[in-house]
Amino acid sequence: MSPQEIPLVPKVRRHLLIAAMAGAVSLAMLGLSFAAVPLYRLFCAATGFAGTPQVAKLPSASKGLRDLTVRFDANVAPGLAWTFEPETPAIKLRTGETATIYYKVTNMLDRATAAQAMFNVSPESAGAYFDKLACFCFSEQKLEPRETVELPVVFFLDPALEKDATMSGVEEITLSYTFFAAKPPASAEMAAKEKHF
Question: What is the pTM of this model?
């Protein structure tokens, strides 16, 4: 080995190390990009961020002192032939008390269709204190042709909201749902495509 070749070995190793590190960072960033949406959903569900209501297993153990108005909003995304509305537009509710309200939904088509509801609460700061015990948004809803069903929502407002300074001026909370058409299973989608050829 000549004296000129000796410095090349550490240089090559250093370049290989830098290339390996760059590759590892690229793979880590790719992995994080795929994990971002589920991690964001998990974060929102845990903290109430972006108006995401909480999921509770039991009713509140205590009653609060504040009464708030809870309004109910219903929307249907374009392309879904359903009507959707709350049976009660608003209620007055004491913190810590459990309430049950119903939404009415009708499939306007002559064939069965399925949809999934997405939801949020406004103002966003109320999401951390809006606890749902039961909700139709947890599962896909399938309606037969021209079928109408009533869908319940069971919830309470956590009395802890009374200690949150950002909630002190809030007198009204809105629970909003939007139904989106469910994607057909892959096999049904393939059959539909084959029909067109």
Answer: 0.66
How far apart are the C-alpha atoms of 89 and 131, rounded to whole Å? 19
User: For the domain with range 54-183, which CATH number is right: 1.10.8.60, 3.30.1300.10, 2.60.370.10, 2.30.30.240?
Assistant: 2.60.370.10
Give the 3-state secondary structure of residue 36: helix
Evaluated on CA atoms 71, 95, 171, 165, the torsion sign reads negative
Q: What is the pLDDT of residues 71-83, one digit of tens each?
A: 999 999 999 999 9
Cβ 66 vs Cβ 162: under 8 Å: yes
Specify the 3-state DSSP secondary structure of 114: strand
Q: Domain limits of the chain?
A: 1-47, 54-183
Coil vs helix vs strand at 87:
coil
Structural contact between residues 46 and 143, judged by C-beta atoms closer than 8 angstroms: no
Name the amino acid, one letter, at 39. Answer: L
